[in-house]
Write a structure and sequence with these properties.
Elements: H1 4-18, E1 25-27, E2 42-48, E3 51-56, E4 60-65, E5 71-76, E6 88-93, E7 97-102, E8 106-111, H2 135-143, H3 152-155, H4 167-176, H5 190-206, E9 241-245, E10 250-254, H6 280-288
Antiparallel strand pairs: 1-6, 2-3, 3-4, 4-8, 5-7, 6-7, 9-10
Helix pairs in contact: 2-5, 4-5
């Protein structure tokens, strides 16, 4: 699953293979927009969150959006591709290299002067992978988010606020700050927003130059909660849980025991609603977890 750090590394590889070199062939079976012409020189390769742009010397820009399935590969001429041709969405060749985009949902071209007219590209938030990203602007975008009732766990993935944060970092950033993913964004204080943004930027930048993501150095596997459903929380020894959240129903991992900051589900008044006894099988399963045995 590509995230900002993955796309940043892909852009670096593409920059090395394509930058300053004349293109000899371009192919994109599902391209939306004009076709880049052979002979043009690639002048720029940039990533912005899950967006990746390649620009030629005539101001033609290829824009690809990876979303959850896309990826860019770089091969030497004549080298066998690691994925089938049917998954190819764009390929750029020069005399030495072939850059291939696989399974990207968005593959389109536009002229640079028209970028502000693009319905999505004209309003992206800062890319947290970049060292010059305006983090203060991201904080302001969080605090002024139009839908104040939107959950923080969803807003962190909104690229109009910030680029680079994907599902893994969403879970890890919220855990690192002890913030409930269900907190309404209007409940964030300026201090909360600053901590979330700084943590996200720090985690992304720490992983730009290696493929294995590490957000918690003292945890086996490097991740505190992502993919650890049913395991012990490294901070409080509670049990990591998971749910689905957001427009695309993506899995979110969090620790209900210690991610309680701003949790709107915490009741401040007594609840007289009758509570049904837990199912015996579920009760036994929880009791058998290694970190719960001593409490019995």
């Amino acid at each position: 699953m590509p995230e900002g750090d993955t796309i940043h590394r892909a852009a670096s590889a593409l920059r090395t293979a394509l930058g300053g070199k004349a293109m000899v062939r371009f192919d994109a079976p599902r391209l939306v927009g004009p076709v880049p012409q052979a002979g043009r020189t690639v002048e720029r390769v940039e990533s912005h969150g899950k967006h990746l742009e390649i620009e030629w010397d005539n101001a033609m820009v290829l824009h690809t959006h990876m979303r959850m399935s896309g990826s860019w590969h770089v091969y030497r001429q004549g080298e066998r591709w690691r994925r089938p041709y049917q998954q190819m969405r764009a390929s750029i060749e020069n005399s030495d290299w072939v850059a291939v985009c696989f399974n990207a949902p968005v593959v389109e071209t536009y002229r640079r002067p028209d970028k502000r007219r693009h319905p999505g590209m004209g309003r992206l938030g800062p890319d947290l992978c970049r060292p010059d990203a305006d983090l203060a602007r991201v904080v302001n975008l969080l605090l002024s988010y139009a839908d104040g009732d939107a959950r923080v766990g969803e807003v962190l993935l909104d690229q109009r606020v910030m680029c680079g944060v994907g599902n893994v970092y969403r879970c890890e950033v919220l855990w690192a700050n002890g913030v409930s993913p269900f907190a309404p964004v209007r409940a964030l204080t300026e201090s909360d927003a600053v901590r979330l943004v700084n943590t996200a930027a720090s985690q992304l930048r720490a992983n730009l130059h290696h493929s294995g993501r590490v957000t918690a150095n003292d945890v086996r596997g490097g991740l505190a909660v992502y993919g650890r459903n049913g395991q012990r929380c490294p901070r409080c020894a509670g049990t990591v849980d998971r749910t689905r959240m957001g427009q695309h129903n993506r899995i979110l991992y969090w620790c209900p025991a210690c991610q309680t900051h701003l949790d709107p589900r915490t009741r401040t008044e007594p609840d007289d609603t009758p509570v049904m006894d837990p199912h015996p099988a579920a009760q036994r399963f929880l009791a058998d977890l290694p970190w719960n045995r001593d409490a019995v």
